[in-house]
Fold this protein.
Amino acid sequence: MTSRLSFLVKFSILVVIEAIFCFTPLGSLPALGPIVATLAMVPVIVTALILGTKAGAAMGAIAGLFSFIVWTFMPPVPPVAFVFTPFYALGDMQGNVGSLIIVFIPRILVGAVAGGLYQVLSRVYRKKDALNMAISSVAGSLVNTFGVMGGIWLFFGAQYSATLNQSMLWIIGITVLSNGIPEAIVAGIIAPVVSRRVKMS
């Protein structure tokens, strides 16, 4: 199998897995708070680790597109869907361009950060591949959590806080603890295992 064909096959398989995680309950983790904890960043991180930073960023964009579709047509938490899509409104609260930034940019950065950091660590610590992958996976996952919550605070802080009847500081804190950290731990375990298996095949 040529390298280009191998790339396309692996990328396509990861797109399918991403779709399964985004559109079915198989990608959901039990979590507290208004935002569902998911496995959706794992295929993005795996793509970055095995196919490179650009491919990881592209997969992040696809993850963002899938997330946009979910929040537009079948939002898991309807009262806060306006922060993820400009086509959803809750009373006077309407999504806007900021919604697109929130749903796309953090996902793209997951692939870019995970892939870029892995490349740097691999040059510095050549014999610690598993650890390099784990660190890069955790960092990539946390980029999504802080990117999304930072975007919500920047573009919809007052509205989001009013919708949930909580301060943004409390919302960000509980989201990081109940969703962000578990997702990062899962990504730090699953992504390296899968990536090393694929690279050895």
